[in-house]
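Q: Please design a sequence for this.
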């Protein structure tokens, strides 16, 4: 499935697999998972405010300010939400929480595009089966410091 265009009155939703995005760069995140996820959350808050390139918008397409949901698991749980970023703590497996979050978002606004940022192949298949699109973890990863 191709990513849906952001053409509804609802802002599109972006669900971010925190563990996958944080783990996509070997920058020492394993020594402080919560701190690395906090850095990602803060970067996502900037993207929520300033917008990001949306899938299928093309290289010169408009930047979109989506409703962002960051799903944290394990030692990364316990962060507060920030402006533009809803933080959801997974009670169990992060992938299961992401699937549940996609279901919730689609039930709340069926016409709203929902995109999941992850490189996890199994998770990509699961959310695509629900009607969500996917984008690369790199597309939302915070820049190297």
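A: Design:
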């Amino acid at each position: 499935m191709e990513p849906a265009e952001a053409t509804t009155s609802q802002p599109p939703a972006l669900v971010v697999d925190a563990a996958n995005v944080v783990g996509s760069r070997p920058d020492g995140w394993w020594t402080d998972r919560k701190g690395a996820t906090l850095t990602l959350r803060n970067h996502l808050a900037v993207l929520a405010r300033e917008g990001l390139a949306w899938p299928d918008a093309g290289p010169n397409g408009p930047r979109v300010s989506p409703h962002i949901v960051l799903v944290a698991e394990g030692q990364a749980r316990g962060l507060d939400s920030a402006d533009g970023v809803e933080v959801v703590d997974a009670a169990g497996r992060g992938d299961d929480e992401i699937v549940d979050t996609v279901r919730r978002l689609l039930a709340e606004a069926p016409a709203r595009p929902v995109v999941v940022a992850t490189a996890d192949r199994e998770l990509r298949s699961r959310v695509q089966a629900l009607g969500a699109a996917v984008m690369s973890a790199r597309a939302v990863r915070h820049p190297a410091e």
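Q: Thanks. Anything notable?
A: Confidence is low (pLDDT under 50) at residues 1-8. The beta strands are 13-17, 52-53, 63-64, 67-72, 85-89, 114-117, 133-135.
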